[in-house]
Amino acid sequence: MRQVTPHRLIEHIAPPLAAPDARRCYALEAALTETVDAVRGAGAGEIHIALEFAGSTSWIRVTGDGEGIDGAGLAAVAPAPPLDHAPGLRGAGLVAAGLLHCDGLSVARRAGPEEPATSVHRWKAPMSGPLSSLVGGDLDLVLEPIQRDAATVVLWQGLSEVRRYQRREGRALEHGLERLRGRITTHLGTVLHRPLEDGLRLTVSGEPVPALPPPRGEAVARYPVLLVHGGSPVELAATVHRGVPGGTGGFHVYAGDLLVQAGGWNRLVSGAGAGSASVCIQVPPAVESAFARNLTAGRVHHPEAALPALRALALLAATLEAPDTVRSTPQPPGNGAVAAVML
């Protein structure tokens, strides 16, 4: 007789979508990164992504070890923020981002020493069918990894990617989802390249995800931008890099070890003038709330007060690629900081 993991099922009302066409604007692989980052934040050092291509019932499942994600915290999830101006640097949130691309989302957390059963939280997207039709009447897809010692399981069912195809069976869909697997691998390898370099074990359909840092040349200057936040100075570290063939010029912005922008000058300088030179920016956790993200464009909205300093750094990068386009190299003020700005 098959052993059934003791569990308790909690069903939730899903938050409203950010916009009717939001799923076309926020790429699936970017939304899935929010799930992976949340599982990693729950202590996972080994994360596996499985993609099951089964026509209209195709699904994506993320499993991780560690302590297990806090499902109770997910229950109070807020509505999805505007995708072109999401507050902070962490995105739309695991639930809101996931429901942009699936009809039903389940999160299971392995029972702890003082918990009687595994907790399974489920949401269904607005306008989708009943949850029972999504899970086939049972929770095996969620509970089976828990039986194999996974601490967290996140399951997407009823994938929006499948609905792009008139025929939801056959080789066209299979090939399309194979391309999706490649997009997921490339995106995760880029956005999570630092934790992958530090030992995070991440696989997609059994294949290891390689670290894919954005190509950058040698670092030529490091200028801290001093941000005064809450009355205390906080350093935003900025490093200017020479360009390399095939490199993506622009700002490379990190929130913790997560790459949240991989190129583009945010209209502070002509991209043609700066070539493939880049400015690598590390945003401290203490000031993340002063920033926002355009999730559809993969860009960071910087605080207005910091823009003059960032423009100076962008112009400095431009002189490395095309020195004739700028008459003089911007120099930092006396204390070595590009600027001290109030947030």
Structure description:
The chain is α+β, with helices and mostly antiparallel strands and 343 residues long. It folds into two domains: 7-208, Heat Shock Protein 90 (2-Layer Sandwich); 219-342, no CATH class. Helix content is 25%, strand content 28%. The chain is built from ten helices and 18 strands. It has helices spanning 22-25, 28-41, 71-75, 94-98, 131-135, 140-147, 171-191, 193-197, 271-274, 307-321, and strands at residues 7-12, 46-52, 59-64, 86-87, 102-109, 118-124, 152-159, 201-204, 207-208, 219-222, 225-229, 232-241, 250-255, 258-262, 278-283, 292-294, 299-301, 340-342. The protein has an eight-stranded mixed β-sheet with strand order 1-6-5-7-3-2-8-9, with helices on both faces. Strands 10, 11, 12, 13, 14, 15 and 18 form a seven-stranded mixed β-sheet that branches. Strand 13 (250-255) and strand 14 form a beta hairpin. Helix 2 (28-41) packs across helix 7. The longest helix is centred in the middle third of the chain and has 21 residues, at 171-191. The chain is globular and about 60 Å long. The chain starts with 6 loop residues before the first strand and ends with a strand. 43% of the residues are buried. The model is unreliable at 132-137, 324-330 and 332-343 (pLDDT under 50).
